Amino acid sequence: MPITNRIADFVSDAREWRQHLHAHPELRFAEHETAAFVAQRLRDFGCDLVRTGVGQTGVVAVIEGHAPGRTIAFRADMDALPLTERTGLPHASTIPGRMHACGHDGHTTMLLTAARYLAETRAFAGRVVLLFQPAEEGGGGAQAMLADGVLDDYAVDEVYAMHNWPGLAAGQFAVRPGTMMAAADGFEITVQGRGGHGARPHLAVDTTLAAAAIVVAMPSIPGRNTDPHQPVVVSVCAIQSDSTAYNVIPDQVILRGTTRFFDISLRPMLRDRIATLAQSTAAAYGATAAVNYFRGVDPVLNEAAAAGHAAAAARRVAGDVRTDMAPDMAAEDFADILAARPGAFVWIGNGSSADLHNPTYEFNDDIIPAGASFFATLAEMRLAKP
Q: Distance between CA 378 and CA 355 in Å, rounded?
């Protein structure tokens, strides 16, 4: 089944939905209007059950097939990022400091479009469960939905999700068995010294200088404390001080960053090494460093059989599937759901757009039919009546 004619009929509506969601972004666990919009569409489609307030602000819908059978679930994420948009598009974010810079508006729209088709046709035996998840961006939304019983309550057998991928040809799919994406943890380093005048640094303890040395030191961990053949990333991504003046040495500087890795046995070493390196470097400059290392998510691990099912459905839609792409150091809390049920995470090409989490990024509306057709095809393949 390539892109179905019926799904093609929905494209105009789907574009409107996606651009509406894009213009009204909401951050993690605050997706109230987004959830209401999603729930109303699902009710309009005639889903058998629509449940809101799941995992705080998530939505669950159920579509029953024409006969009893197994249960398959699909997940889409709904939250935006704390980022100011710079696309200049007519449907750009109407809220300064919030933006759908990762395409979650598109993921939600693709699953809504598939839901409309599946609720209308019901050409499957069993049950399709739709999970519209809040707080994927570092908020633990997957865990919140799991805690509310979304897999157990509906006896879900398999679960799948999709993410757009800039740089991959528009509408092309990629999936692989095993590791698909990395584990991700976070850290915060508070460098404490003694503030003073920028003209008299000898009378202060220069936290800016100490923090800069820590930033430079952090990338030495991969390849020096880990096997060079083992992919590891340590990135400092934010620097904040209690001074905004050009001539004031601040008392305190805070560094925030992330670690990425595939081998979870490295987690304790990374935690300890970051603390040791930060504290010893700060001490060399007469400052102190307090380190908070916090666990994020484990790697996204696709079950081999499920990855095969996803690839087969993608081939029916697109004719070609990339199974040779290397795992990526980005992370996804869909890993938590895959730890609870067999399933797979799939990438769909967004074309030559700006990268994810960039203020000029834009989801490619032209891939909505392919993404929706993938979900519909996979449901009909996996829930075909024996």
A: 28
Closest CA to 373 of 39, 9, 96, 54: 9
Burial bucket for residue 91 (CB in 10 Å: 0-12, 13-18, 19+): middle
Contact in structure between 114 and 76 (CB atoms under 8 Å): no
Tokens for 127, please give them.
């049950």
Instruction: Confirm whether pTM is higher than 0.70.
Output: yes
Q: Which of 32, 69, 67 is nearest to 52 (CA)?
A: 32
Provide the token pair at 252: 């305190």
Query: What is the C-alpha to C-alpha distance for residues 95 and 30, in angstroms, rounded to an integer?
Result: 14
* pLDDT tens-digit readout, 83-134: 999 999 999 999 999 999 999 999 999 999 999 999 999 999 999 999 999 9
Q: How far apart are the first and last CA of the chain?
A: 19
Among 351, 377, 347, 374, smallest CA distance to 162 is for: 347
- Provide, for the chain, the percentages of residues in helix, strand and coil under a 3-state DSSP scheme, each rounded to the nearest 5: 35, 30, 35
Phi/psi at 83 (5° precision):
-145, 140
Cα distances (angstroms) measured from residue 236 to each of 189, 196, 215, 242, 359 = 10, 25, 6, 18, 19
Which parts of the chain are beta strand (E)? 49-54, 58-64, 67-77, 125-133, 158-166, 173-174, 178-181, 183-192, 196-197, 232-241, 248-249, 252-261, 288-297, 300-302, 321-322, 343-351
Distances (CA, A) of 269 to 130, 199, 259: 38, 40, 11
Residue type, 186: G
Residue that the structure tokens 């029916």 belong to: 316
